[in-house]
Amino acid sequence: MYKIVKTAVTKESNQINLYETQNKDYEKTILIVGVFHGEEPQGEYLINKYLKTDLSDIKNKLLIIPCLNPDGKKKNQRQNSNKVDLNRNFPTKNWEKTEENEYFGGNYPASEIETKFMTEIIENNKIDAILSIHAPFKVVNYDGPAQELAEKISEITGYPVQKDIGYPTPGSFGNYAGVERNIPIITLELPENEDNEVLWHTNKEVFEFLANNY
Questions:
Q1: pLDDT digits (tens, 9 = 90+) for 137-174
Q2: Nearest CA among 211, 47, 34 for reference residue 133
Q3: Cβ neighbours of residue 127 under 8 Å, at least 6 residues apart?
Q4: Which residues form the domain of 54?
Q5: Number of folded domains in the chain?
Q6: Which of 35, 49, 129, 134 has the largest count of CB atoms under 10 Å?
Q7: pTM check: above 0.85
Q8: Given CA atoms 19, 42, 211, 115 in this order, what sign does their dihedral have?
Q9: CATH code at 171?
């Protein structure tokens, strides 16, 4: 059904896993990522719930990372164990070294194990669309040529489409994959205080759509 095809070990000796569905014939490749930020664990719950469904006959190949930042999740903090915001650490044209606060993008681009793990996946696969699951804004944000996809996901979830998140994001994954590599990328911002089962009920069709109808 699916298997681990790539792993990395973090500074705190936690494992990051990339799962791949094992459908031999597929039309597109979709990357799904949870827990960029350690205090946003909802994505891992939804992804793991989806992995328990029947994936034997889906149309597209899925590459799935339930938790990119296990160190941050264990510490319940936004950044990884080096106090770097992974979503500011990508090697983009707009990366900049910033003050060392919760949005610190590292001492140089792609300095972190977790970021390298992601860039290698993008470089070594032809990705047709990306879903990155965050919290807490309850919007469908997008980068790259993803407006139509964002509107479809908004239709499924009832969350509004919001192109601009409202503040600068130098070195973000959206810039790296969406703006600079022209891959449609959705940053699905879940509401912060909803029960995980409610979130699953609201968002499960997003996974099904990406697997079978995109």
A1: 999 999 999 999 999 999 999 999 998 877 788 999 99
A2: 34
A3: 29, 30, 31, 63, 121, 177, 183
A4: 2-212
A5: 1
A6: 35
A7: yes
A8: negative
A9: 3.40.630.10
Contact 47, 40 (CB under 8 A): no
Q: Which residues contact 206 (CB under 8 A, 6 or more apart)?
A: 131, 153, 156, 157, 188
Question: pLDDT tens, 96-133?
Answer: 999 999 999 999 999 999 999 999 999 999 999 999 99
Report the alpha-carbon distance of residue 76 to residue 211 in Å, rounded: 30
Compute the distance between CA of residue 133 and CA of residue 153 in angstroms, rounded to an integer.
Answer: 12
For residue 123, how many other CB atoms are within 10 A of its CB?
9
Q: What are phi and psi of 200, to 5 degrees?
A: -65, -45
User: What angle in degrees, to the nearest 10, is found between the helix axes of 42-51 and 196-212?
Assistant: 60
Distance CA 2, CA 197 (A): 23
Separation of alpha carbons 52 and 185, rounded Å: 24
The whole-angstrom separation of Cα 132 and Cα 83 is: 21
